[in-house]
GntR family transcriptional regulator (Paenibacillus naphthalenovorans), 231 residues
Amino acid sequence: MDSHLTLITSDFTLEPLDYSSSYIPLREAVYQKLKTAILDGTLKPGQLLSENQIADKLSVSRTPVREAIRILETENLVTFLPGRKVVVTMPTLQDIHEVYEIRSIVEAEALRRITSSHPVIRQMEEAIERGEEYRMQGNLQKRGEMNTYFHLSIISALENQRVQQFIDSLHDTISRFRVYYLTLEWAVEREDEHKEIVSLIKQGNTEQAVTVLKKHLAISKENLVSVFTQK
């Protein structure tokens, strides 16, 4: 965790957990609730958490909260501090550079496996179409999710479940910052780049598509680093 992270001790909002019709274990429901709150910015990096506080807000006992927090720790979304305190993890600049370096290498290799008739192209186009719809509705959070869907669709061409899960976890590391840099201008520019990548693949210009993809990821990294250094 970033040693310069400012701890947030103020209260936060979590709606009570609606578990009446759920068929998943309670700890899983609590875990999903907390993970969503971290990724959408409700629980910000540096936010101090307590089992009692979360249990009260979600109207559950402490046991599933404790179990959920342990799962979040394995995903590096929360960190335990001395004195049994728990805090929402802040990625470091090194984390950001490493995540994008890995993504650039893996996504480029995956893109090279997508031929002009590959079925994953339809998934990529769907991500673009749905992303545009969300942008026009002003829902930039959902638009950001479609950005992730586009890139995970590329990864799916590798047909490697372990790689897919690993890259998905990398997206979790950085996606919480979307709330800080998502703008309509950003969304339009990224959509245009996504469309160019798909168009080049359809034309059989794979290496040119890879070049556009790497530039696209480099720009995204620069935006994120800029936001990070201002926090």
Q: What stands out?
A: Residues 80 and 86 are 5 Å apart (CA to CA).
